[in-house]
Specification:
By secondary structure, the protein is α+β, with helices and mostly antiparallel strands. The protein has a single domain, classed as Cytidine Deaminase, domain 2. 25% of the residues lie in helices and 22% in strands. A 6-stranded mixed beta sheet has the order 1-6-5-4-2-3.
């Protein structure tokens, strides 16, 4: 038996103002999307913005439902909308943020496991690492270059 460990490389920026302009714009668009989320139950509004290789930015936000499993995360809303509206166009980056009227969210919010698995598929389809930016409503920004930094031991289509 041996012990091994996974190392998760990422960059940390003290604020979105430190980001390259293209990333700062993407993150701002995610913040804008969070303000439009439908989250009457959790009051946890999540926004996502996807930048495609053609420069188009597609937004998504979380949509809750009284029958909880019927809702959907902001990240998947944005990715699925991008795939539906721009079929065949590779993805470059995804930004995710969160906002709440009930408490401050000043730590980065990371995508859930289901969203990460969809990001795996998006990255495989795009044939390039997906840049992922995470921030709360304020505070530091974490940037991951590739989904394997967020989700080790990914499940791939080759296993099917």
């Amino acid at each position: 038996m041996r012990k091994e460990q996974f190392i998760c490389p990422y960059e940390v920026y003290d604020s979105k103002e430190e980001l390259p302009q293209q990333d700062a714009e993407l993150l701002q668009r995610a913040h804008d999307a969070a303000r439009n989320a439908y989250a009457p139950y959790s009051k946890f509004n999540v926004g996502a913005a996807v930048r495609l290789a053609n420069g188009v930015i597609v937004l998504g936000n979380n949509v809750e439902n009284a029958a909880y499993p019927s809702g959907l995360c902001a990240e998947r809303v944005a990715m699925f909308a991008a795939m539906a509206q721009y079929p065949g166009v590779p993805f470059e980056a995804l930004a995710v943020t969160a906002w709440s009227a009930t408490k401050a969210i000043d730590e980065p919010v990371a995508p859930c496991g289901a969203c990460r698995q969809v990001m795996v598929e998006v990255e495989q389809f795009s044939k390039r690492p997906l840049r992922v930016l995470c921030q709360g409503d304020t505070g530091v920004v974490m940037v991951f270059d590739g989904i394997e930094s967020l989700m080790p031991f990914i499940f791939l289509d080759k296993f099917l």
